[in-house]
Amino acid sequence: MDPLPTSRIAPQSAIYESISHIETSADPHLDSSCIFCKIITGQLPSFKVYETKHSLAFLARPPVAHGHTLIIPKYHSRTLTDPGLPDEFLADIGPITKKIAVMNGENAYNIIQNNGRTAGQSVDHVHFHVVPKPASEPDRGLVLTHESWPSYEEDETGYARDAERMRNIGREHDFPGVPDQDSSNYGI
User: Fold this and answer.
1) How confident is the model at residue 140 (pLDDT cuts 50, 70, 90)?
2) In sequence order, what are the beta bridge partners of 73?
3) What is the C-alpha to C-alpha distance for residues 1 and 126, in angstroms, rounded to an integer?
4) Distance in Å from the first CA to the final CA of the chain
């Protein structure tokens, strides 16, 4: 398919609603109702900038900055853990993210990955945003302030509690990189 002219680019929600009837191929790793799976199969147009066996990178519609790129695995998983993106697909994305950052030609950029609606995910297919942040356009891209990115005070006991909880969950899943660390001096 020929790419859509830029004058016809609509907001993401309008694009998704208008093409939801298009069927994808019978690839068992893709979802026939997913907009990104349809881009992977070529049934929907995109402006591709990088592609490998496991991943595809293309310009976001609509962008929040010039060069705003989405990197998606060629495997349908709603989030990183639901139902679960195979490690070989995830391992492919890191090096591509670095290449896209270089290809954007900016020294400042954000890498964003959201999982679930409350975290800001708008398409139910794992995807990573590479958003250039040119110094000449401070109001474009991801605009982080103390108000939009609030932090809070935490004491050592709180850090120890959070770390121990995470390590326990990692052990339950038999993750090999979970370290043993004594948190008893923090009352844990």
Assistant:
1) confident
2) 55
3) 24
4) 59
Query: Is 167 in a helix, a strand, or coil?
Result: helix
Catalytic annotation, pick one of 76, 127, 146, 173: 127
Residues 116, 59 contacting (CB under 8 angstroms)? no
Answer whether 71's CB lies under 8 Å from 93's CB: yes
Q: What are the backbone angles phi and psi of residue 165, rounded to the nearest 5°?
A: -60, -45
Catalytic annotation present for 127: yes
pTM over 0.70: yes
User: CB–CB of 98/111 below 8 Å?
Assistant: no
More confident of the two residues 42 and 24: 42
Reduced to 3 DSSP states, what percent helix, strand and coil does the chain have, rounded to the nearest 5? 30, 15, 55
**Which amino acid would we find at residue 142?**
L
Rounded Cα distance between 163 and 157, Å, is 10
Distance CA 61, CA 46 (A): 9
- CA gyration radius for the chain? 20
